[in-house]
Amino acid sequence: MGRSPCCEKEHTNKGAWTKEEDQRLIAYIRVNGEGCWRSLPKAAGLLRCGKSCRLRWMNYLRPDLKRGNFTDDEDELIIRLHSLLGNKWSLIAGQLPGRTDNEIKNYWNTHIKRKLLSRGMDPHTHRPLTPVDGAAASRPAHIAVPARAAPPTRRDEHGGAAVPRPEPRPVSGPAGCRHADLAPGLPLPP
DNA sequence: AATCTCAGCAACCGCGGGAAC
DNA sequence: CGTTCCCGCGGTTGCTGAGAT
Length: 190
What we know:
CATH superfamily of the domain at 72-138: Homeodomain-like
Structural class: mainly alpha
CATH architecture of the domain at 72-138: Orthogonal Bundle
CATH topology of the domain at 72-138: Arc Repressor Mutant, subunit A
Low-confidence stretches: 1-9, 132-190
Helix content: 25-40%
Shape: elongated
Radius of gyration: 20 Å
CATH class of the domain at 72-138: Mainly Alpha
Distance between the termini: 49 Å
Number of helices: 7
Mean pLDDT: 69
Number of strands: 0
Largest sheet: none
Strand content: under 5%
């Protein structure tokens, strides 16, 4: 019943991606487009599970990714969307072209949380932390406000897995797979 | 100069929804 | 109609490098 036999998890690599793996994945998707992640690794000659390939492509290799510091506008938009949607990172990412849910999630946890706390706002409820005045006064002691200048350190190397960003290039749609792309966008409230 | 601490980020894990048999 | 499987999402982990001591 059901479908054909499923993904064998043995004989798959884990951890950081190598340049060669990246290039194989890019090359395959350039030709065949996104989608059918389960069969992709085998077809592309990768010893990875489809899930891992999808993640790598979506979060790092996609040509339309921005890969840079978030602007103040983006910050504010993320904060606003988070107050409306909660931790629906994929929905929030849908409103920020070139940004991924994983990137936004990481950015939220490392930067925006602190930003809100320094304003005296609860990052979860988006309400003032306590009735008492002053942001710093109400900040929990264990939560540090930007301890460092937080320079825009974008480690393009991670375990030697980084690869030069591929030049932007339209990718053909899912080749025969059922799922559609993420909905184009949510109507933003006034 | 060496060591320690912590921020930042890529990648993994587990689960739920929904489509394919 | 029930079962199986794929896809995508959110949460978490672990590694790396920069700053502090």
